Write a sequence for this structure.
């Protein structure tokens, strides 16, 4: 097979969940696109770091600096919903029902996969909780209802259970065990939010 083709296929394989066959399909699809569209695609990728970054407070996506949620002072500053990934945050935002703040952990505790607590943004979360101390904050744990998500949930509860003025709830009801937040439909998410305990 063409070496250049193989090289580009390898690049696509660097993306999560993309195997050699799907990578090849992506490259072939791009070969059928006009030059202009490919330039646009290439520029967007090349400028990614310049134009988009992670919010330094909650680790949502932002246009360099604070994200739209953190910038919005109308949002409830006494609610902090903790998710594993940005895609989970997106799912909850799409429901339009949650008006508090977020914290993206960057994964869930899963020692078998080498994901230890130190690799999550827990220190940053701790600092945020310290800053909010005394304000009667609700910490809503919205990790996935699977083993890693539950482990993370217990860990978070242990971490903050003795913190003054912190009320911990868990988003779970309505979500089936082993499922993923990012694939849950809006009605299920609404239910899970409404009945958190
Ligand atoms: Zn933010």
């Amino acid at each position: 097979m063409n070496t250049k083709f193989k090289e580009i296929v390898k690049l696509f394989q660097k993306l999560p969940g993309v195997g050699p066959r799907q990578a090849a399909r992506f490259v072939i699809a791009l070969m059928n696109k006009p030059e202009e569209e490919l330039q646009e695609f290439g520029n967007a990728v090349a400028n990614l770091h310049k134009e988009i970054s992670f919010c330094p407070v909650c680790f949502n996506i932002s246009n360099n600096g604070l994200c739209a949620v953190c910038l919005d002072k109308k949002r409830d500053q006494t609610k902090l919903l903790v998710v594993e990934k940005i895609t989970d945050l997106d799912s909850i935002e799409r429901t339009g029902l949650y008006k508090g703040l977020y914290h993206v952990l960057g994964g869930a505790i899963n020692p078998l996969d080498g994901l230890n607590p130190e690799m999550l943004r827990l220190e940053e979360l701790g600092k945020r909780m310290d800053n909010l101390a005394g304000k009667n904050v609700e910490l809503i744990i919205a990790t996935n209802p699977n083993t890693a998500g539950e482990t993370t949930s217990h860990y978070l509860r242990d971490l903050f259970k003795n913190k003054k003025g912190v009320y911990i709830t868990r988003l779970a009801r309505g979500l089936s065990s082993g499922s993923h937040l990012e694939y849950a439909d809006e009605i299920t998410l609404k239910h899970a939010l409404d009945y958190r305990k």
